[in-house]
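Good day; I would like, with your permission, to put a structural problem before you. What I wish to show you is a protein chain and, alongside it, a tokenised description of its three-dimensional fold. Please examine both parts with care and let me know of anything in them that strikes you as inconsistent. Thank you for your consideration; the sequence and its tokens are set out here:

***
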Amino acid sequence: MARHIGIVACSAEGAALCYRTICLEADQTMGRYDHPEVSMHTHSLARYMVGIRSGDWPAVAELMLDSAAKLARAGAELLICPDNTIHEAMGLVEPRSALPWLHIAHEVARQAQRQGFRCLAVLGTKYLMEGRVYRSAAAEAGLSMQVPGEEERRRIDRIIFEELVYGQVLPDSRRHLDEVMAEMKALGCDAAVLGCTELPLLADPATAPLPLLDSTRILARAALAEAMR
């Protein structure tokens, strides 16, 4: 039997996409309508933002660990967090967690290796683009990475927090994201990491100037594979 997956959620849209991917894609290997048992817990995004904006990662870790404990009591056997930004706190979380976690950036890096990519354009919140999460994962995997310039980082961050977390997908924002990816391609990047779990709502693989590494779905598929291992 597949193991019970626990989802430590932060923002609704990314968590919902991750959950839907697990449930909808499981039947390809488990059988029609079948999927592992899945539980989700999320604290308010507003509570997370207090810690994120102040750089108080121990406070973020406490929220994640509280969700993890509740999911363990619900019977979860492995954990995932469909939010790239709060993985900044993962080093404080994993040593205190009773359950194993899959790390979103490490799963993305492994997928990049499988597809033969070497230089990743990392897109996400300003906290993610300016933080250590993907720098560490890329370095461990022998990959290089780049992020957009400061003005582009600010605009992408605004798009995420003022539009995408509310499920708003605007054509101007999609065009801007494509323009940023085109600039990153010119700088030598050969793939773009959608390092915010809401960015798949905006990025269109058919028009994107770079191949996309969709962190939300990569994590969901890795969880499925691990649950069935």
